[in-house]
Design goal:
- With about 190 residues, the protein is an all-alpha fold.
- The chain has one domain.
- It is about 80% helix and about 0% strand.
- The longest helix is centred in the C-terminal third of the chain and has 53 residues.
- The chain is elongated.
- The chain starts with a helix and ends with a helix.
């Protein structure tokens, strides 16, 4: 059976159903990235807030020897900056993805019946006509394009999520080093 025969065996309704399920899966992933982003923002806010509010208390534990004071200041700066960088990436995750066509740009003339931004730009009468007269082929084409757009948007969200998490790793490694420095000056140098 060649590819052409295989494609003919799947009718338009079945394709619409499969693509719609893909879109639902992408939507679930997008929602889960937003949930994870909320947790990461809370974590980073706590880290930055603690670093700023408790800076003097933290740094006072590292006054002697002089190198520990210098290293602890650098590490606290790295911790705060890493958290701020993570927040910047995570804000890109929660930023709405509003491309209406596969070129990744918002198209003022888009006639998609699946993208809310296109629907609200139509007059209600035009929307009713389009919705009631769309063929399976047109719906399939719109679904395919929207599936592609959502996949690209999801990919961007996931990349920014990964970058935000990597920045947290940098912050955590710096925090671990800060704790090790405290251990060295407390138990080794005393």
């Amino acid at each position: 059976m060649n590819n052409n025969e295989n494609q003919q065996s799947i009718n338009s309704k079945e394709r619409i159903e499969v693509i719609f399920k893909k879109i639902l899966r992408y939507d679930f992933y997008i929602n889960s990235t937003n949930t994870k982003a909320s947790i990461i923002i809370a974590w980073n806010g706590t880290v930055v807030g603690t670093t700023l509010l408790k800076y003097n208390s933290i740094i006072s534990m590292y006054r002697i020897p002089e190198w520990a004071y210098f290293v602890s200041n650098i590490l606290l700066l790295v911790i705060a900056l890493s958290s701020l960088i993570s927040i910047a990436f995570i804000f890109q995750v929660i930023n709405p993805f509003l491309a209406s066509n596969h070129t990744q740009k918002t198209d003022k003339n888009s006639k998609s019946l699946l993208f809310f931004g296109s629907i609200v730009k139509m007059r209600f009468d035009d929307y009713m006509k389009r919705e009631s007269s769309i063929s399976n082929e047109e719906l399939l084409s719109d679904l395919i394009e929207q599936s592609y757009i959502l996949a690209n948007g999801l990919n961007i969200k996931m990349l920014n999520m990964r970058r935000g998490i990597k920045a947290i790793y940098c912050s955590l490694i710096s925090l671990l080093i800060l704790v090790l420095v405290k251990g060295v000056i407390t138990y080794v140098l005393v």
